[in-house]
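Schema walkthrough. Field components (list of strings):
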Amino acid sequence: MPIHPGTARIHSVSLRTAQQRRAIPGFGLTLGITLSYLSLIVLIPLAGVYFKAAGLGWDGLLHTLSSARVLASLKLSFGAALIAAIFNAVFGLLVAWVFVRYRFPGKRLFDAFIDLPFALPTAVAGIALTALYAGNGWIGRYLEPLGIQIAYHPLGVVVAMTFIGLPFVVRTVEPVLAEAEKELEEAAATLGAGRWITITRVILPSVWPALLTGFALAFARAVGEYGSIIFIAGNIPMVSEITPLLIIIKLEEFDYAGATAIAAAMLTLSFLLLLAINLFQAWVRRKR
Amino acid sequence: MEISIRNVRKTFAAFPALAGVDLDIASGELIALLGPSGSGKTTLLRALAGLEPIDAGQIRFGASDATHLSVQERRVGFVFQHYALFKHMTVEDNIGFGLSVRKGQDKPDKAAIRRRAQELLDLVQLSGLGKRYPAQLSGGQKQRVALARALAIEPRVLLLDEPFGALDAKVRKDLRRWLRELHDKTGVTTVFVTHDQEEALELADRVVVMNRGRIEQVGSTAEVYEQPATPFVFDFLGSVNRFRGEVQGGKLKINGLSLGTNSPLAGAVDVYVRPHDLRLVEDSSPGLEARVLQVQRTGPIVRAGATLAHDGARVDVELSHLDPLTATLVPGARVRLLPAIYGLFPPEGDAPLKTLPDVVPNAVPEQRGSRARA
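Field assembly_structure (string):
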């Protein structure tokens, strides 16, 4: 076909306009809806917390937050949540591994049990755990003579947080493990790697990002958990009192500003921690 | 290292993937296992690596019995179709992996592992890419890294499972030539699996044609192509026509046409003729009369489809465009065909070609692992 000088120019012009448009239409509209929705559901209520807390002024804010009782509760809430999330990361990974790799009778039933902490009203979980771990409970009665107290003790907080956080790790890690190529393990084996090295150097690194996500979710859920903990914790000020409970107490004392001040502190801490986990995750992901 | 395989058997849920395989591989040889899917070629390769435990038989590497050695103990280099590179490790760490997992005094220090990785990167012509991650490489580069990784442990034998299967045609051709050069340089005994006859014929010293868990023929590339031992090999390596004939008193008769033969067969036979081994002859010469159905020219080759006049059997013919008689090839024309080179086998009945010995649909070992990617 002969090429006319004009055709090429027309062609390039039409190409340029096509490039200026986006391949998928509706970007402006969808972004607008997303931002409005996010604002309405998440950002505005949270901003309200800061707005209300700001009413105290810097001095009032510092005064509320630096009280020993608030500090102790924050330490317990975040500390116990961290321990519970680490626990869940380790054992959740193990559970996911067993579910993906092995067949055993009753597997589907156990699979359904894992989701129970999702679905159960938290108060039910709290009562059940308390009944088990109290000094006269099924488990508590054997632990008490050994000097291990769980109910009405910070340990109880960790137990409740572990209970409600487990499904987050299992359900995020499971699909990644299931998709891991069998060939990677076979390749490692032909290169002389034994089972343990294959797991630690080949399989685990590939589930790292998913495990971190599960860890972050379990942690966030544990920090925010209220219902199940207040039953088992005993709520002794300075010892086993979690921050969300302290907020309720402040509200019941009509100290709204104080309650929101603590809430704002919790919010900030949670946000910073999740942000840190996300950044770490992005760093892990970038390496592949 | 020479390998000997004796009467190896493996059954997957009643499907015999390997039904008694015997094979000797000489040290430094480059061998192709060729066959359709389900023929057992991948199972045999995996059995050599120890990835697939065998039900019976013996595998020897050199003088030592490797039948019951674990995968780790066999020290084989295995290259997978989909590379199986460790995505979270750099290219260099991938290549060094096999050395870094060694224990005690066998384990080289970090500097030595790095040096070895560099050497291998040079060998596979990827110098300077050591710090990249697999995701940053092209398919051909990934497969070369996989090969370097397998070579790093100084394997007794290198096993490649459809190594070029996931690559596009151009890269595949380049890599094929490159692998041949690499093999000549390193001299490692190498076995590779393929279903691509062209790949097998171009690359290998010897070709092992497999079908239904058995070896049909072992031979040099010329042997398996020019003297196929069975109808299956004839059919699988290139296209082929089948005529009915009869051997009488040292002569092959096809509907009155008489041809010479030294075949020990007598009575009814199947005559296998490749399309390019048919000649077009003048009307007066002896030959098989056929009616041309369609004609197609691709470059220097003229292809024609025709039916035999005496029994209506379908015939494919390939001629050089230099053949003066190609002018007579027009649809509807009557022509005379003379088989120049042919093979005789006992009659198979009416089973159509190409479908004769293929696959049992399930339990095909080489499809394992592909599910996740599908």
